[in-house]
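hey m, so remember when u said the tokens were messed up on ur end? i reran from scratch. heres the input so u can diff it against urs
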Amino acid sequence: MVSRAEVNHNFTDAELDELRSFGTIESHKAGDLLVEEGAMAPDCIVTLSGHTDIFASTDEGRKRVGWMERGQFAGDLSVLTGQRHLSRVEMGADGEILRIAHLDFQRLIAGNSHYSDIFVRVLSARREFSNHRGFAVTIVVVAAMDRSVYALRDLLMKHGVAHRWFDPADGPVAGHLMAERGLTGDQLPVVILGAADVLVQPTPEQLAAGLGLDLLPDGATADVLVVGSGPGGLAAAVYAASEGLTVIALDSLAPGGQAGTSSKIENYLGFPTGISGNELARRATVQAQKFGARIVAPVRASAIGRDGDDAYCLQLADGRKLRSRAVVVASGAQYQRLPIEGIEAYEGRGIYYGATPMEAQLCGDAEVTVVGSGNSAGQGAIYLASVAKKVHVIFRRGSLRETMSEYLVKRLEEHPNIEIIPSTDVVGLHGEERLSGLTYRCRETGAEGHCDCGFLFLFLGANPNTTWLPKEMVCDERGFVKTGTDIAPLELVKAGWSLDRMPSRYETSWPRIYAIGDVRKGSVKRVASSVGEGSVVVSDIHQALAEIGATLS
């Protein structure tokens, strides 16, 4: 839990004098509005005299939750990211403020390590403090088992957007919120953004646009485009941006990739007590944005092609086109579905592909089944066992030790709420509006069993996300991208390789397009490996860009 001392900082007079060059001084009367709750790309407000009041929405209405005196600044991470501001800032007493515009603030953070450390530390602490206290500018009104609630809350959780969720069946609050805005039950789900904006039955893409998660214009350019913002993609974005390259990083849902669904990663260097995949992704995202990288999601790449001799054009599924001189393919892989007819009807209604706090909230004190035998399955089972009545772990192999780390196997074996069921397949799903049970079959004896389980978590083998790549790019028989010495000379000729040199270690059969992480043939499926590849590939990019010299116009 973040303490109040961590969510504030007092600048010295000397520091205030230095900060003045980044903003403008304004005089205000008590009660003047400085930043509206829910404002996009908000400015940073530093109090010079008088004081500023901070108001936040709570279950009991808007309340004053703090104030800023001389040398203190208002705002949360949205000041850096451009997302909607969590609070309303007013002048509490006559005085002066220093207003640092959003773009100027980003330049300050990217160019000055002293102030960057202060602002990022305090703004991050404030976001965590707000989440714990329940302050949120985003309100979701929807029934708990509505399939749309999963997609919307999944987006909010993975982007770290503070939000509150009200189910009309749980009390009068949802009804009051609806009535105040003239909304009816047939318009659910509803998302309320800030003081005025209301989204009725929004898609995840519409919600992302409303939150300011995707403000990327058509025709945007960068030195490097990173497609996929899992651990490898985020590492590439951090290192490339920190070394002076302009970076746009994309993801089809949110930063984190498959690692973002891990409830706890305990064998990642530097975190002796473990860290959730979502928290690791949040920290890396802020780190990349601190250096000036643009993180955009949810957007989906649909095609890539050459744009002249030294550039590439990436087309998004919505028709927008982006240009760059180098591309990092970090699109990862996605978990496979069970080969059961009609499984799509239960996705989001009992079937899930990750175990995060959002899913755990749904299945408290219920029976849960986890399918898979890798580390992600083990981590998910242990996490769910802390809230579920019983967790059944089903997998096809004869032993978990064939594919899972020993420390996880021991925890599964020793946990009283976990039942391990080897050499078994799930062969049937049951339920009308949502999953209510499943049938499984032993691979050795053929005997079948039934489980009255309403929650099924799938952590199966993964397929590479490479359908958007050109057919000329060399991949193996399973669709994983070949790089470096894995590409045979004849394959390079067929792909149209035109350079005098051979591809570097992570370079594909197209010059200056690189593949890292799970999408690459031969990669080690571990978070640390992906992060290492994402950091190392940047040195290869620098060398390749030096070969062509000119920048994009």
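this time it looks ok to me. The first strand starts at residue 24 and ends at 28. if urs says something different then somethings off w ur setup not the seq
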